[in-house]
Design goal:
Strand content: 15-25%
Largest sheet: 9 strands, mixed
Radius of gyration: 19 Å
Order of helices and strands: EEEEHEHEEEEHEHHEHHEEEHHHH
Structural class: alpha/beta
Oligomer: single chain
Low-confidence stretches: none
Strand order of the largest sheet: 6-5-1-9-10-11-12-13-14
Distance between the termini: 47 Å
Mean pLDDT: 94
Number of helices: 11
Length: about 300
Amino acid sequence: MSLLVIGSVAFDAIETPFGKTDKIIGGAATFISLSASYSLKPVKLVAVVGEDFPQSDILLLEEHGVDVEGLQVKQGEKSFFWSGKYSRDLNSRETLVTELNVLADFDPIIPDAYQDCKYLMLGNLAPQVQRLVIQRLVNRPKLIVMDTMNFWMDIALEDLIATIEMVDVLSINDEEARQLSGEYSLVKAAKKILAMGPKFLIIKKGEHGALLFHKNKVFYAPALPLEEVFDPTGAGDTFAGGFIGHLAATDDISFENMKRAVIHGSAMASFCVEKFGTERLLNLTADEVEAREALFAELVKVMPAAAIANVA
């Protein structure tokens, strides 16, 4: 099943208590595409970079099954750049530099070869750009997943709500869910947000896992306790890529399969944080992914009471 990913392909410079990097490849669409590529290939990408973006990094994406026909390269311009520094516990960060560059006037062009996509992942971008992508597709995809952030809630709330009405799944973190809904309780927040239009809502809670809401159903996936976490940059996007990659590969958008997709996305995100940037996502094996998913399954596995009684 064809998957189309829209978002940023960019440079990041990251500092954590465990080290720092110079400019490395980053951006929401980069993490999403690499993560999804472990479920299906090709992943069709629409994004924009400047002429400073190395051809070697474009080739890297292609080598991992990412179709870059929709990647615009703007001559004479620079790529989006973000630099940030994380706190000791990695739960908060300070943005040091944000340079929009080519992303400031990004006009997403959908190649004809991408028009048949059944699954669409809208990475974090201005909501009017996300909405434009939906409008430019000749046929509505079977499933549209959207990620956003509190920045757009602050400066473009009306546009954001108009875009949320058009999607099937919204993915945000707990702080953003509270801001968008005006409710502190995540259950109450979910009800308000689902009333805005999406059929499903994912609320990411970082090191505390993720929640999936649909009508009156709720599913919780814990986060995997890791010995070492080096860099949380891109973990949410990696989760999103794993989530929609699984759904597209199985072509099943039932609530039960979405629960499995949440587990797969959580497993992929747990790899992401083990190294800086995209490094850990570049050379995973199928066995590693399967073993990591099994660890998540063990976290939520409970023996039925009848089985316990029989053992006793």
